[in-house]
Amino acid sequence: MESDTYKTISSSSRGIYKEKGSRFVSFAFPVSEQKEIKPIIDKIRKENHEARHHSFAYMIGFERTNYRVSDDGEPSGTAGKPILGQINSFGLTNILIVVSRYFGGTLLGVSGLINAYRSAAASAINNAELTKMTLREYYEIIYPYTSMNDVMKILKEENIGQSEQIFDLECRIRINFRESLREKIFSRLSRIEGLKSTYIETR
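RESULT FIELD:
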């Protein structure tokens, strides 16, 4: 993939894996911030209150360095890590996967649990629609009204997104573009006299 793209899922999905009477029901959700995680898990716990365990893993951010796993009472390393392993295997980010286990009366052992959680997570991912997202940078630019035509020419030619426009003696526009185009775009904008830019965010 290009340096400014990442893979995620476009909407929530479900999966299931059965082993020796136990059911492992998996739920995958697209997420972009850590604060989204707890409410989703709480909802899963409430809706699947008969399940013994609700193990999960999530990965957030383009750099794929913000992640966490939870075994939720299962033997250490048998649930959260296998779920995360599937997220990594598919190269995904901005995703949360929760697997709710309904115990069937037969112990599966460490290897059995690892396989079950891995398979359940894979089932949810396989049932989801994968999508490639482009990382975009957002800036506010300020420039004199006399430079309007020059600015608009660049925005149009470079296919730059625009919002929150204020046209006065001093003009303000919020712009966004692919991260990989930053150097090219600012090379052109920097030639416009009186133009100032302020970085807002990347997402």
